[in-house]
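Slide 14.
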Amino acid sequence: MRFILGFDAVGPRDGMFSDVEIRRVLGFLCGTMLVVAVARLAFSLTAVSLKDKRRVARALIDRTRRRFPVAVAEIEENDNHAALVLGCSVVSNDAQHAMSMLDHVVSFMENTYLAPMILREREILHFGPLADGFWDAEDPDPESWEEVAASCEPVSED
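Slide 15: predicted structure.
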């Protein structure tokens, strides 16, 4: 998708800008945007116990954290010794930088040869400038925390 801006541009495209360039300019003019890139990575393990799985998971997580400034944690299949699922996230103000970092992390984990990677999923989340706010200040149905807590039934401990 391309946009034509209402001012003269310098360059070979004669005023044509991609949506990425538009977002970058708007992010610069309106304030930095928050970009969060997340990945879910699944590995197949030949571990015979949870202790073996923890050893592989610790090695992958520690090596990745030492090499890259990312958050990594085991997120699923905690009691299954044959599978390891890790979540990884990168926070940046530029989508290309966040995705590039995430791609490098995935490639690094795959090239450690500690376990074969069987699944990789990734997603990128964009958040606007802080001045936009996270909620509508004029919410037509404001409820206090006390009203919400009073309307809930307590959980019975059977």
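Speaker note: The radius of gyration is 22 Å.
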